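Batch manifest, entry 17 of 40.
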Amino acid sequence: MLRFVAMIFEKNMAKETAEFLLQIKAIKLNPKNPFIWASGWNSPIYCDNRVTLSHVQIRTFIRECLSKIIDRKYGKPDAIAGVATGAIAIGALVAQELGLPFIYVRPEAKKHGRQNQIEGHIEKHQSVVVVEDLISTGKSSLNAVKALRAKDINVKGMVAIFSYGFELANQNFAEADVELTTISDYENLIKQAIAREYVPEDDLHTLENWRKNPSKWSVT
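Output type: structure tokens
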């Protein structure tokens, strides 16, 4: 019974999150005039979860969802770790909700001052759950995990707002032995986008093809 309730919660959470992200245009869909990511990939979708921080109701919803997932899956770790820079704010909000210390992890160590890569106080062998805003290939997120493990910190898992659901990301997380849980994902996003007529159903094929091979995709 408890497992069934958890499944219903996760399904509703994924649907509501996708709807919220579309409403506030945190996620933009434009199959006919694609965006160019920093990686050079052409993409019919652009996700900027920082926009959620400007909307109190949505920010609160995301904070509560991530906190519930962490509490249900991991109990109370010793701290919450945010991935810089996108997940610093939401990570701090989650830590506050759970009454836990907060640290964050830079992409690399600073070149000046104390030359920290991990900011904040945490002891060796303590445990953290990592908070991320967005998962694409997972490489930058897992770089944070690598930095934490190098300091003998126990990473219990990672939670994130949204994932594109790339097979490459699944492989990267499996190889790194990191459990990932996201509030919502690409599949739920597309369902809501079509249901709410954010994009025509004719564009569904394009959006599905892009996710299968995003590094090679282009408008034809």
